[in-house]
Amino acid sequence: MKKYELLINGNKYEVQIQALNDGVATVQVNGSIYRVEVLGEKVENISSQAAAPTLAPVPTPALRPAPQPAAPKPSPAPRAAPAPAPAPSPAPAAPSAPKAGPGDVTAPMPGLILELKVDEGDVVNSGDVVVRMEAMKMENDILAVRDGVVSKVHVQQGAEVQSGQVLVTIGD
Fold first, then answer.
1. In 3D, which of 103, 100, 107 has the Cα closest to residue 142?
2. Quick check: 163 and 108 in contact, CB under 8 A?
3. 3-class DSSP state for residue 26?
4. Which is nearest to 39 in space by CA: 87, 88, 89, 81?
5. Are 11 and 30 in contact (CB under 8 A)?
6. 43 CB contacts (<8 Å, ≥6 apart)?
7. Cβ pair 107, 161 in contact under 8 A
8. Which of 35, 40, 83, 93 holds its CA 20 to 30 A away from the CA of 142?
9. pTM score, two decimals?
10. Could you give the CA distance from residue 163 to residue 140 in angstroms, rounded to a whole number?
């Protein structure tokens, strides 16, 4: 079966549909198995044992008009409700960032450190580029917040950082 990488609320999940029978999918999310009921679409049954069929994208129900109710039909025999899927475990949280001080340069959003433009002991002016980071598939220059000497570089090139995390401290 095809694997999908999904980013949900900033957390990365690896999802694989293993089987789909009568509108109930068996999916693996980050190694855990869940039963998920597919709503609003008639879908073909698939199984990881069979040749991997191509799944067509399922339109989001909110983006198309709701069908008009037809004449009342006799209700089908009740079907056992699938077990509720537990919420996927979020990716491990980054270590909590220390509280930012007046000379601290912080990450404006989660991202990846591409390049450190300063070293400890460097003299910087307010507005100088101190770090280049990638966030939301864009490169961003992170600027010094004041004039001074770089007293501490808190991150390394290639590190993933969270919003508000201290990157560089500039002292007097």
1. 107
2. yes
3. strand
4. 81
5. no
6. 20, 23, 58
7. yes
8. 93
9. 0.44
10. 13
One-letter identity of residue 19:
A
Q: In one letter, which amino acid is 145?
A: V
Quick check: is 26 in a domain? yes
Task: Kindly provide the b/e burial profile for residues 155-164, where b requires at least 16 CB atoms within 10 angstroms of the residue's own CB.
Answer: beeebebbee
Percent of the chain with pLDDT strictly greater than 90: 34
How many domains, in total, are found in the chain? 2
Which CATH number is 125's domain given? 2.40.50.100
The range of the structural domain enclosing residue 125 comes to: 104-171
Digit-coded pLDDT (tens) for 55-82? 444 443 443 444 555 666 666 666 666 6
Q: Which residues of 91-117 are buried (b: 16+ CB within 10 A; e: fewer)?
A: eeeeeebeeeeebbbbbeebbebeebb
Instruction: Show the tokens assigned to 138.
Output: 């864009």
Residue 28 lies in a domain: yes
